[in-house]
Amino acid sequence: MRPRLLLGHPAAGIVLALLAWLVLVPLLNVPPRYLPPLGRVVADAASVSLELWNSFLRTLIETALGFVAGVTLGVAFGIVFTWSRFLERSILPLFVALQSVPVIAFGAIVVIWFGNSILAKVAIALYLTFFPVAVATLRGLQMVDEKRVDLFLSFGASKAQIFWRLALPIAMPSIFTGLKLGVSLSLVGAIVGEWFGDSVGLGVMLLQALYFEQVERVWVLIVICGLLGALLYGLLALIERKYVWWRIV
After folding, report:
1. Using CA atoms, how far apart are residues 130 and 183, in angstroms rounded to an integer?
2. H/E element, 94
3. Which of 12, 87, 211, 240 has the most C-beta neighbours closer than 10 Å?
4. Distances, alpha carbon 141 to alpha carbons 44, 80, 136, 180, 206, in Å
5. Closest by alpha carbon to 123, among 49, 63, 54, 56?
6. What is the rounded CA–CA span in Å between residue 55 and residue 124?
7. Which one-letter DSSP state was computed for residue 16?
8. At 7, is the pLDDT very low, low, confident or very high (cuts 50, 70, 90)?
9. Tell me: the pLDDT tens digits for 100-132?
């Protein structure tokens, strides 16, 4: 029973992947250009540990700010669309069209507007975050049963009370689905934003490693970015499990 519990742990997949990397790469004699040995990757990470840590913090800050801004905007639009069918039909297709614009093209425009500042990275992260959150909020609020609304009205509940005590709790599982998708996209937006010019950040280090063909460094950054994404996703999943327990399986 205990091995099954260990395998069911959220970190089990990461640990197993690292063990497979450690054992199989030298065993199968995989060429370093495809996948270098884990020891060389760890050694390369240690050689730039200070720069890696500063870049990690910078990208984390950009991701967090963009995510918070995107969530605020997305939830607000989701609520507005629920209250106004006209606005949903007129504005939501515009958002769909905007999401079809490649992030590289949008990022170039943002950099022209704001320059190579942290605001530009936050704006790109926001751009990728707000749409899934808005759609998840809208769909969650649309799941409210009209019979329950009528029951609340029969007891004299106001629209605000119906929203806070009925609609929002029902919508929260759907909203958290959008949040967990949005936080990964926010990280992607922050990293891509750093490609347009900056001096620190995981995206900057990744671009430099690609330019100088530093294979070990590329894998270091792939692992760090993956761990950061998993950390943020896991944090949201933990919050969901603690506070939105009524729909967690």
Report:
1. 10
2. helix 85-99
3. 240
4. 48, 11, 9, 18, 40
5. 63
6. 18
7. H
8. low
9. 888 888 888 888 888 888 999 999 999 999 999
The chain-wide mean pLDDT, for the chain, equals 90
Angle at CA of residue 103, ends 142 and 209, nearest 5°: 130
The CA-based dihedral angle spanning residues 112, 72, 97, 90, taken in that order and rounded to the nearest 10 degrees: -120
- Both tokens of 109, joined, read 């425009």
Q: Which helix (H) or strand (E) holds 175?
A: helix 168-194
Instruction: Specify the 3-state DSSP secondary structure of 213.
Output: coil
- 123 Ramachandran zone, left/alpha/beta (phi>0; psi -120 to 50): alpha
Specify the residue for token string 């926001």: 126
Contact 228, 187 (CB under 8 A): yes
Task: Collect all residues with Cβ–Cβ distance below 8 Å to 124 and sequence separation of at least 6.
Answer: 66, 103, 106, 107, 110, 189, 190, 192, 193
Are residues 239 and 96 in contact, defined by beta-carbon separation less than 8 angstroms?
Answer: no
In the chain, the N- to C-terminal Cα span, in Å, equals 20
Which residue from 134, 127, 136 is spatially nearest to 62, judged by alpha carbons?
127
Torsion over CA: 6, 22, 237, 247 (sign): negative
**Is 0.85 topped by the overall pTM?**
yes
Tokens of 63: 């991701």
The pair of three-digit structure tokens given for residue 201, joined into one six-digit string: 């950040």
pLDDT band with cut points at 50, 70 and 90 for residue 249: very low
